[in-house]
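ligand=iron/sulfur cluster
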Amino acid sequence: MATYTASSIARVSACPSSEALPHVRTAVSPEAERGTAAHEFLFRLHNGELREDALAAVPEAHREYCASIALQPVPGAIAEVPVAYDVLRRSARLLNVSNRAYGQLAASEVAGTCDLFIPAPPGGVATVVDWKTTHDVEGMERYTPQLEFYALALARAHHVAQIRYEIVAIDERGQPHFVIQRELDFEDLEAIAERLAQAHRAVGVALAAAGDHLLRSAAPWAPSVTEGDHCRYCPAWRSCPAKRAVLDAVGRTPEPNGATYLLVQDLERWAELGREKLREAVREGGPLPIDEQRELRFNQRGALQIARRREA
Ligand code: SF4
């Protein structure tokens, strides 16, 4: 099995070195726990359970939120579809597993679990759906590599040349937003397959370089990395050379001690001053461009957010 799964495709494609740096898994956030509960609830609904039974099965802390989700089961759809796509052979197979325990897979197989698969209606095409619980309804574009993966894998597994994918953002009030709906044809799927193969090869090169470095040097490996939206959940964040550069001042303290805390406090204060200046600038002049694709602006809750640039 590849070292990564479908949910990491965006990061791995943009920054292959992230897969070869040391990983640290962080504690599950309350938002992630809520997302897991919502997925469990929707999975049960699609399996024919009564709404009240599906609600009773989720943790009490998230029951009210799940009850607010204004989605009905899609007739004929299959929830939680595990699939493995072989990036080198360019073929896929459905897996008979549950709870994302993918078991033994080939080294070139990438596994993932699609939230919902809607078989093709007569004369139409099948659809893969992903539910995202979020306060950032406008930021769904960053999940398209993951959805492209599911679309390709399910198209190959079902031997079809056309397929749709859909991202449903479920906001904090439980309202669904059907923000992204795209149809892919044979050429689109070929292009996605090529991108996945390239990313997989790049990860292989990075893993080999990291192993080689380990044999030759005791210093931490410092590959070139590519920062972006995909850094948000990167498990290599703490060992990333770009992120660590910010912490040089703290890192130079030989042993963690009380004085380190003072440095951390100063860093936090600088960060808050920087945020306040940015808030002022956005309040007065509108969104600030980050690069050709992204800009900094306020989201619906009035917090700063990195978002895809809007046309002027
Ligand atoms: S945090 Fe660093 S290693 Fe991780 S994706 Fe971002 S740039 Fe790459």
